[in-house]
Amino acid sequence: MRRRAAALLVSLIALLAAMLPGTPAAAGTVQDYPEFPYAPTTYSEPYRGQFHFSSQSGWMNDPNGLVYANGLYHFFYQHNPHGLAWDTMHWGHATSPDLVHWTQKPMALEPGVHPGTLFSGGGVVDKDNTSGLKTGSLDPMVVFSNTNGVSVFYSNDNGQTFQSYDKGRKVIDIPDESRDPKVFWDAARHRWAMVVWSAQGGNGVNIYTSPNLLDWTFASRFSAPWLFECPDMYPLNLDGNSGQQKWILTSASSQYVVGSFDGRTFSTDWTQPQQMDLGTTYAGGSFYAAETFTNTPDGRTVQMAWQGGNYGSTWTGNATFPATLALVTTPDGPRITRTPVAELSTLASDSRSWKNRTIDTAKSGNLLDGVKADTYELTAQFDVKNATASRFGFDLHLRSDGSADRRVVYDTKAQTLQGKPLKPRNGKVTLRLLVDRGQLELFADGGLYSLSDNAYFDSGADSQGIGLFALDGKVTLDSATFTRLNTSWGTGQSTLLSNLKGPWHASGGAWSDVSGGKRASASGDAFYLSATSAGDATYQGDISLDSARAGGLTFRADASGAGYTANIDTSGVVKLWRPGRDIATYATPIAPGSTHHLKVQTNGDRIRVWLDNGSDPVIDATDGTYTSGVFGANVYSGTATVQNLNTGTGGFTSFPTGRWTPRGGTWTVGPDGLHGRSAGDGFYLSDRTGTDFTYQGDLSVTNGTATGLTFRADASGAGYTANIDTSGVVKLWRPGRDIATYRTTLVEGRTYHLRVQTNGDRIRVWLGNGADPVIDATDGTYASGLFGVNGFAGNTVAQNLTVG
Question: pTM of the entire structure?
Answer without folding.
Answer: 0.93
